[in-house]
Amino acid sequence: MLVLSRRPDESLIINENIEVVVLGVTGNKVSLGIVAPSDVSVYRKELAKPKKKKKVTVAGPKKTWHVLSKIQQMNSMIR
User: Is 77 left (phi over 0), alpha (psi -120 to 50) or beta?
Assistant: First the structure.
C-alpha cells in the first residue's frame, strides 16, 4: 500500500490516465475529485459488488478411493 500526504488542490496520477485531486478537507472528511476515462469504473468501495466465491466441492473418501483405483488400473494397463 502506498501512503501519501496531499493538501487541497494537490493530486496524484494513477496509471498515467487517472487523476485523483484533493478538493478539500473538513474535519475528518476529505473531498476527492477523480478524472478518469469513460471506460474506467469509479465507485465507492461499500457499493462494490462482492466477487462470488467459487464453490469448491471435495470428493468424499469413497469417491477418492474409486478414482485412485481407476488410475491404478490405467497405469497397470499401460505397463
Answer: alpha
The per-residue pLDDT for range 28-37, each reduced to its tens digit, is: 999 999 999 9
The amino acid at residue 58 is V
Query: In angstroms, how far is CA 25 from the centroid of its own chain?
Result: 29
Give the predicted TM-score (pTM) of the model: 0.57
**Residue type present at position 73:** Q
Q: Provide the b/e sequence for 23-50 (b: ≥16 CB within 10 Å).
A: eeeeeeeeeeeeeeeeeeeeeeeeeeee
What whole-number distance in Å separates Cα of residue 65 and Cα of residue 41?
48
For the cut 70, the answer to whether the pLDDT of residue 61 exceeds it is no
Task: In whole angstroms, give the CA distance from residue 59 to residue 54.
Answer: 16
